[in-house]
Amino acid sequence: MFKAILIDKNATSYNSLVTDINEEQLPEGDVLVRVAYSTINFKDALAITGQSPVVRHFPMVPGIDFAGVVEESAHPNYKAGDKVLLNGWGVGESHWGGLAQKARVRGEWLIPLPKNFTEAQAMAIGTAGYTAMLCVMALERHGVTPAHGEVLVTGANGGVGSFAIPILARKGYSVIASTGRPQEEEYLKLLGATSIISRAELSEPGRPLQKERWAAAVDSVGSHTLANVCASIKAEGAIAACGLAQGMDLPTTVAPFILRGVSLLGINSVTQPYDSRIEAWKQLGIHLDLSQLSDITREIALSEAIPASTDLLQGKIRGRLVVNVNE
After folding, report:
1. Are the CB atoms for 4 and 21 separated by under 8 Å?
2. What's 226's domain CATH number?
3. What is the domain-level CATH number for residue 44?
4. If pLDDT is split at 50, 70 and 90, which confidence band does 177 have?
C-alpha cells in the first residue's frame, strides 16, 4: 500500500482525497517508479478542484510531473535503480499520475533524470520550466535575438513566467513582465525582468492592430491577453503561446499576421518527441541558475496539495509548488 491523491466523481459529487492505494490498482505500464517528488501545475489544480474537465477517466491520480527511481522495468532503456523524470503524456489526466508514492507508466514517456539536477530540483522546474524552455527555443528558432528588442512575458508570477524570465535574462534579452500582482515587482526584477506592466493593460478587448511594442513574447494566458500581445508585436516578431490561464478563446483578427508578418508559435509540451525533451532539459541545465530555485519554489507535503490547488487557482501562489509525496 502507498499514499496518493485520488480523484473520483459520481452523479452528485466530485471528490479529491489523500488515501491508501494498493500497487495492484496501478494502471498498465512497463516501468514502475518509486516517486520522490511531484508538483502542482495549473492543470493539476484544475483536476484536483474539478474546476475544469481535465480528468478523462475516474478514479484518477493527478500529477502531470514526477521524478523518482525505477523499482521494476520491462523497458529496454531502464533498469531498477535508474533515476527518471516524466512530464506530460496525459499522465494525471487519462493515466494515473505523479501525486502518489508510486507510478506505473510506459517507458517511452520517461527520460533519464539529468545528472545536474536532483529529483527535487527537477520538480521545482517541472513542466512549467520545461515549457518555458521550449518557448524560448521556439523563439530562437524563429530568429529572435536580444538585438531585436524587448521580450514580453505574460502571467509572469506563474510557473512558466517564473522560468521564462530568468532564462531569457541569462541569454541577454531585455524582459518585460506582465502581472496582476504589482506587489511582486521586486521578485520579478530579482528573476531578471527589466520592467513591469500591469495585466490590465492587456486583459481587456483591444484594437486588432496596436502600437508595435515588443520583438517577441512568451504567453501562458491566452484569450484577450494573447490577442493584444499579437496586436502589439513588432513586424516579423513572434509569440510562443503555451497556456490558457485567462481562457481558451483567441478574439483577434488576421491583421497582425498579414500586415506585420507576426508569427504565433504553438508550444505543446505534453507529447514532445524524446530528443526534444532531452534537448530542452539539457538547455535548462545550461541557462537556468539553480540558485534561483529557492526564490521560485516552495516545498509542501502530499497532504497539503489539495488545499494548495485552490490557492493556486485563486492567484495566491507565487512561482512553483514542489510536492514531497513521502511527507
Report:
1. yes
2. 3.40.50.720
3. 3.90.180.10
4. very high
pLDDT score, position 8: 96
- Number of folded domains in the chain? 2
Statement to judge: residues 132 and 167 lie in one domain = yes
Angle formed by the axes of helices 119-142 and 159-170, nearest 10°:
60
Q: Tens digits of per-residue pLDDT, 266-323?
A: 999 999 999 999 999 999 999 999 988 988 889 999 999 999 999 999 888 887 899 9
**258 within some domain:** yes
Residue pair 100/283 in contact by the 8 Å Cβ criterion: no
CB atoms within 10 A of CB 1: 11
In a 3-state reduction of DSSP, which class is residue 19?
strand
Query: Do 6 and 132 have their domain in common?
Result: no
Looking at the structure, tell me whether residues 170 and 92 fall in a common domain. no
Distance, CA of 174 to CA of 148 (rounded, Å): 10
Query: Are the beta carbons of 75 and 30 closer than 8 angstroms?
Result: yes
Distance (Å) of CA 260 to CA 107, 136, 187, 188, 264: 44, 21, 34, 30, 12
Cite the DSSP H helix spans in the chain.
42-49, 119-142, 159-170, 185-191, 223-232, 255-259, 274-287, 293-296, 305-313
**pTM summary value:** 0.93
Cell of 222: 491566452
Which cell goes with 101?
A: 508514492
Compute CA 214 distance to the chain's CA centroid, rounded to the nearest angstrom. 23
Return the half-sphere exposure (C-beta side, CA atoms, 13 A cut-off) of residue 181.
15
In degrees and rounded to multiples of 5, residue 232 shows phi and psi of: -115, 5
Looking at 251, 266, 281, the residue that finishes a domain is: 266
Instruction: Kindly report the backbone phi and psi dihedral angles of residue 300, in degrees, each rounded to the nearest multiple of 5, phi listed first.
Output: -130, 165
How many Å apart are CA 147 and CA 273, to the nearest integer?
31
The boundaries of the domain holding residue 233 are 127-266
Whether 276 is covered by a domain: the verdict is no
